[in-house]
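Marked as duplicate of an earlier ticket. Keeping the data here for the record.
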Amino acid sequence: MYTLMQKLLSEFVGTFALIFVGCGSICADAYLRAQGQHGLVLLGIALAYGLAFAIMATAIGHISGGHLNPAVTIGFWVTKKISTRDALGYWISQLIGATTAAYLLTLAVPEGIWRSVGLGAPDLATDFTRVHGIILEAIATFLLVFVVFATAADPKGAFDKVGGFASGLTVTIGILFAGPFTGAAINPARAFGPALAAHHWQNQGVYWVGPLIGGVLGGWIYATFLLQEE
């Protein structure tokens, strides 16, 4: 049995890696474009995020569950699979991990590069309203949390076989369809850390309201209608 501190450390490291790689890939894309090269484009960035999530969720899944995302944690909390104390601890660890990664990126990447993309902080596309953003972020997060429950929380699920890779692929497809419109945070920590480091707070509420709604619905629907406890 792992202690709470071990779980919180795992969530910190996992979320740190997710944000450092994910936002780092956005900075890398900006650098390549500035050099006149093709860049990673949307698919490359989506794969970077998805693979980072898949690898870290698989690596720490046996310790903390590999949430890496306050929206995943709230899905487990609303279905009473995690205590309020632990959920708050997970949130704090995830936010600190994301913030640490963002600030280290400002040291590792030239300022002109990361500032040109707001350090990867998400924002809405032109003429895309906050309501549109909340709906799209909620749907993308719903799919993620639903898959996490189906593979990790369900005793009959496929977690032992596929680890966190199903969840990572869900992050990838979420970015592919939502990225051009909202930046596809699908994760309040992913929005908060870069926004704090880059002072880029535009539409920050969208990236909390949408994912948290999606997380609650994804967890509740799976747990209520599909989960069969052993």
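See parent ticket for discussion. DSSP finds ten helices and no strands in the chain.
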